[in-house]
């Protein structure tokens, strides 16, 4: 047929010639076609959102890089509504009712490629870290084999270990009537997590950071992962590449120092268990080792080490952030300070060591903790998931399979209908007389995530926060060094603050 019309295929030289003559027009057509197809040739065209973000992730990458994705997402949700297209294949949901659709027990919405840079590898491959596992059977096994060790019952008998760390903190704070309390809370939380996990800590409070672990957690787990998680393929050329990781982080690679440390501490405890009778509270690792002894098939060495590694990497900075939020807001607001200290000192007459049972029964303290987790969630990036192959309808909009979707705690926690004047720290909203409203607020609290991937360390954290805040206010009168000061923070995977400088006055008891 071509011969009939005398059309011959152009030679390569002719094509090159055409391209070199018309490249500006061709480039413009290609860009237009790319933008058009990304923007419109997808069912996501029906999801509202800024034009720019519908064909490129650059706005979101920029927001995360400058540490302000929370502000960016909130602004978009206030403009476009409960569901917003924040990238060509990325959707942010701000509807608390959608928490149960995206994050539930059946695990249909798997962890998205965002979690790729979190993955840590050892000689056998990817570590079975519950945070990143998509394989449901393996994830269920990892949760089951540590279920008792993370339970509140197990935590409560560890209280004496927490109290011993608190005693040491107080000795140090007694000598520092003016200090950066935020820094001390971080050292404290790190010592506590080591103490409850391994039965001994590394004296972060006394020695600073003896193993250089804190910068690794802050810059790799907190910052790098949040930024590179937006463009996960890039990880293969950065810290996901063993050569680059070695050059940047040294021999241990990504998170390797924490993994090595976890293995070493577990090994030490195992040796102790075979050589001597262990007395005292049953630590996290001891519980897992005893379980392994009774039922070796239930948990292997690698899984046990992974849980210990998880505690080291996930347990301290998150809890620190929550404690900083509480102390800052309580010291900043005189009415709240008076109500809380009255409850702790006069009504309950708590004394150090404060038991979790006594402190957790205080309604105002409980409301203060809830409000702190609401106003400043310790994780700053939406917990990304992938829509299952069959697609899903969320907020009345259909999302095709493969879309990356998620909810940011910062967005649902600042919902103006549920939390009027959301930027105000107001514990009273948790004590509202309208029980249905309070129940709806509780269902919207998303700081610990929800469904099958809910935070495993929630009990440790709540026990530690509740006891420490009550103990601090039993021992000290606390004031901000500068009453007008505000905390500054960056919002990435973690949301660590700086600037919590206080005056402490030891109370006469
Ligand atoms: C205020 C303190 C804490 C907050 C706000 C917090 C927050 C979170 C969040 C948001 C997730 C889930 C992320 C997702 O859905 O993708 C998570 C998972 C996890 N957290 Fe926490 N966390 C805290 C303390 C702790 C502590 C103290 C530990 C350990 C001792 C811990 C261990 C874990 C583990 C192992 C997971 C993975 C669970 C899974 O995916 O099955 N966290 N945490």
From TrEMBL:
Residues binding heme: 455
Pfam hit, one: p450
Needed cofactors: heme
One of the record's GO molecular function terms: iron ion binding
InterPro entries xrefs: Cyt_P450, Cyt_P450_CS, Cyt_P450_E_grp-IV, Cyt_P450_sf, Cytochrome_P450_monoxygenase
Gene3D superfamilies xref list: Cytochrome P450
Keyword Heme: yes
TM ranges: none
Protein family (similarity comment): Belongs to the cytochrome P450 family.
Alphabetized PANTHER family for the sequence: CYTOCHROME P450, P450, PUTATIVE (EUROFUNG)-RELATED
Protein name as it appears in the record: Cytochrome P450 oxidoreductase
Species annotation: Staphylotrichum tortipilum
Lineage of the organism: Eukaryota, Fungi, Dikarya, Ascomycota, Pezizomycotina
